[in-house]
Design goal:
Order of helices and strands: HEHEHEHE
Strand content: 5-15%
Structural class: alpha+beta
CATH superfamily of one domain: OmpA-like domain
Strand order of the largest sheet: 1-4-2-3
Helix content: 25-40%
Number of strands: 4
Oligomer: single chain
Radius of gyration: 40 Å
Shape: rod-shaped
Largest sheet: 4 strands, mixed
């Protein structure tokens, strides 16, 4: 009888240890509140000519003393404007050639014209049509700087690309 009693007690202990304890009720999850995503801003086309980060915002091409060939540093600017003009056949530009104050009026007018024509030729090679480009020389008549030193003269030896 002892064996039976011990067997029953051990069986009850095993059953008690093996059974799962009742779980406590879990808290209900917090309700998810969906906030609508903000509507995307309307796409505003930024004109690259007016975007200060665009290469097209640069409109002056600079030249060394007594030189009319576009320099390597300024070629990407002229090429970008040529490409823009080829993609926008309705746009037109005037290339204005300028010089510093050294040299005669006649010489500077001729040099300014050669500078403007040089930029025009590169614009055409970059895709623009000749009919989109007008050239004019102002010689030394439209300086951006009026000091009488090399730093100032360097700023005046230029061709300006002006969109109409």
């Amino acid at each position: 009888m002892n064996k039976i009693l011990i067997s029953i007690v051990l069986a009850n202990l095993l059953v008690a240890c093996a059974s799962e304890k009742p779980k406590e009720p879990e808290a209900a999850p917090a309700p998810v509140v969906e906030t609508p995503a903000p509507a995307p801003a309307p796409a505003v086309a930024v004109d690259p000519l007016n975007d200060p980060t665009s290469i097209l915002a640069k409109r002056s091409v600079y030249f060394p003393f007594d030189v009319s060939a576009v320099q390597a540093d300024d070629k990407p600017i002229v090429e970008a404007h040529g490409k823009y003009l080829s993609e926008h056949p309705d746009r037109k530009v005037r290339v204005e050639g300028n010089c510093d104050e050294r040299g005669s009026n006649e010489y500077n007018l001729a040099l300014g014209q050669r500078r403007a024509d040089s930029v025009k030729q590169m614009l055409i090679l970059s895709g623009a049509k000749a009919s989109q480009i007008e050239t004019v020389s102002y010689g030394e008549e439209k300086p951006v700087c009026t000091e009488h030193d090399e730093a100032c003269w360097k700023q005046n030896r230029r061709s300006d690309i002006k969109y109409q």
